[in-house]
TrEMBL record:
Cellular component terms per the entry's GO annotation: cytosol
Cofactor note: Binds 1 Mg(2+) ion per subunit.
Name by which UniProt lists this protein: Shikimate kinase
Organism per entry: Rheinheimera nanhaiensis E407-8
GO biological process, one term: aromatic amino acid family biosynthetic process
InterPro entries attached to this UniProt entry: P-loop_NTPase, Shikimate/glucono_kinase, Shikimate_kinase/TSH1, Shikimate_kinase_CS
Summary of the function given for this chain in its UniProt record: Catalyzes the specific phosphorylation of the 3-hydroxyl group of shikimic acid using ATP as a cosubstrate.
A GO MF term: magnesium ion binding
Underlying gene: aroK
Keywords tagged on the record: Amino-acid biosynthesis, Aromatic amino acid biosynthesis, ATP-binding, Cytoplasm, Kinase, Magnesium, Metal-binding, Nucleotide-binding, Transferase
Length: 146
C-alpha cells in the first residue's frame, strides 16, 4: 500500500519559528511571511512521497509556482466565495481576514488575483463545496489513479 507523509506549509512555518501564523504576520508583515512560505515550500518540494497542503497565497510567488509544477501533481481545491465566507467566519487565525474590510470583499479580491494562478499550475481541479472532506480526498485518489 502506498504511504504518503502529510505536510502543511503553515504548520511547517509554525514549527520552524515557534510562532503561530498570526504572530509571524504581526512581527514581519505579509512580506516576511511570504519569504518564509517560499523557503519552506522550496525545502518541502525536495521531498518525495508526500502530500503538501500549501497556504492559499503561496501561488503568488513565481518560484513557488514553478517548484510545485515541476515537482508534484497540483490539485486545485476550488471553493465558491459563499462557502469560503461561511467556513472562515468564526476563525480568528487568518490575518488577511482580520481587517475592517468585509470578509466577502477581501475573499473576492484575493480570488480575482489568485484564481488565474491556481488555474495556471493545476493538474486537475476538485470542487470542495458539494461533498465532505473524506469524499474530496477519495475523488483526488481516484483521479490520481492510485
Ligand atoms: N469539504 C468540506 N466540507 C465541509 N467543510 C469543509 C470542507 N473542507 C473544509 N471544510 C472546513 O472549512 C474550514 C476551512 O478548511 P481548511 O482546510 O482550514 O481550509 P484552508 O486550509 O484552505 O484555509 C475548516 O473548518 C474545515 O473543516
Ligand atoms: O490565503 C492566504 O494568503 C493565507 C492563507 C493561510 O493558509 P490556508 O490557505 O491554509 O488558510 C495562511 O497561509 C495565511 O493566513 C495566508
Amino acid at each position: 500500500m502506498l504511504h504518503l507523509e502529510f505536510y502543511d506549509s503553515d504548520q511547517e512555518i509554525e514549527r520552524r519559528t515557534g510562532a503561530d501564523i498570526a504572530w509571524v504576520f504581526d512581527l514581519e508583515g505579509e512580506e516576511g511571511f511570504r519569504v518564509r512560505e517560499e523557503n519552506v515550500i522550496q525545502d518541502l518540494t525536495e521531498l518525495q512521497g508526500i502530500v503538501l497542503a500549501t497556504g492559499g497565497g503561496s501561488v503568488l510567488s513565481k518560484e513557488t509556482r514553478n517548484r510545485l509544477s515541476a515537482r508534484g501533481i497540483v490539485v486545485y481545491l476550488e471553493t465558491p466565495i459563499e462557502k469560503q465566507v461561511a467556513r472562515t467566519q468564526r476563525d480568528k487565525r487568518r490575518p488577511l481576514l482580520q481587517t475592517e474590510e468585509a470578509p466577502r470583499e477581501v475573499l473576492e479580491r484575493l480570488a480575482a488575483e489568485r484564481n488565474p494562478l491556481y488555474a495556471e499550475i493545476a493538474d486537475f481541479t476538485v470542487r470542495t463545496d458539494e461533498q465532505s472532506a473524506r469524499a474530496v480526498a477519495s475523488q483526488i485518489i481516484d483521479q490520481l489513479g492510485f
